[in-house]
Amino acid sequence: MNTLPIIALDFDSSEAVHTFLDQFDEPLFVKIGMELFYQTGPDLIASIKARGHDIFLDLKLHDIPNTVGKAMEGLSKLNVDLVNVHAAGGTDMMKRAVEGIRKYNDNIQIIAVTQLTSTTEEVLHNEQNIQSSIEAAVLNYAQLAKQSGLDGVVCSPLETSLLTNALGSEFLKVTPGIRPEGTSADDQKRITTPHQAKALGSTHIVVGRPITKSDNPVESYHKIKESWLS
Ligand code: C5P
């Protein structure tokens, strides 16, 4: 799997996605989330792959092990490069997810969402009834993901060094919450620059609005890529 910055294609139609991609004349790594996939389905995936781009299909599966395993078997046919599940689904579910996604394609990598960045310590304690810090809860889920055979986790860049120390540098740390210096944070709370994310141990970064809402998406992407690779 390549290590290009992953562009979050948070658009509301296939047409908008292709209009955006038309501006680029190079292979990209893009993220398709549930908003878009639930409307456009596998056809959009096939058309993006046909353009030569890698795809992170960000559907965050979470159900009983059999259902997730069977759903992953279906996704395994789509020729995507990276998929994910919620670690909260448990180790049986994660193991079945790995088996399912590798059914037709050994090369697809699979990562776990640990705690959503929208989860505060108050929600963790009072709603999930987990009486630890967010960091300890993230580490616990990341360890379970590794034990279940997953390739890594989605996490905040500010959590990556903790996970690298515990789980090694090969374990994928895919991090949103990235903002180049001088750009709007939008609704992201805990942000780093691409360069800081790399220094902290992210293996991949996910960047949306700083590229998709830019006046010059190609230039913004290249600046982010340079900062990330430097
Ligand atoms: O536009 P922006 O760079 O904030 O987009 C980040 C992308 O990463 C969005 O698609 C968002 O849903 C996703 N994401 C996130 N935080 C997480 C998990 C996913 O921002 N914890």
TrEMBL record:
Give the reaction(s) catalysed.
orotidine 5'-phosphate + H(+) = UMP + CO2
The positions annotated for binding substrate are 10, 31, 58-67, 117, 179, 188, 208-209
Q: Name one Pfam family in it.
A: OMPdecase
Residue numbers annotated as active site: 60 (proton donor)
Q: Which residues form the Orotidine 5'-phosphate decarboxylase domain?
A: 4-224
Pathway listed for it?
Pyrimidine metabolism; UMP biosynthesis via de novo pathway; UMP from orotate: step 2/2
Keywords of this entry:
Decarboxylase, Lyase, Pyrimidine biosynthesis
Top-level EC class as recorded in UniProt: lyase
**Domain of life, source organism:** Bacteria
Protein EC: 4.1.1.23
Q: Share what the entry says about its subunit structure, partners included.
A: Homodimer.
Task: Describe the task this protein carries out.
Answer: Catalyzes the decarboxylation of orotidine 5'-monophosphate (OMP) to uridine 5'-monophosphate (UMP). Catalyzes the condensation of ribulose 5-phosphate with formaldehyde to form 3-hexulose 6-phosphate.
The UniProt entry, under HAMAP family, shows: OMPdecase_type1_B
Task: Report the sequence similarity comment from the record.
Answer: Belongs to the OMP decarboxylase family. Type 1 subfamily.
> Any idea what this protein is called?
Orotidine 5'-phosphate decarboxylase
- Organism source for this protein? Staphylococcus succinus
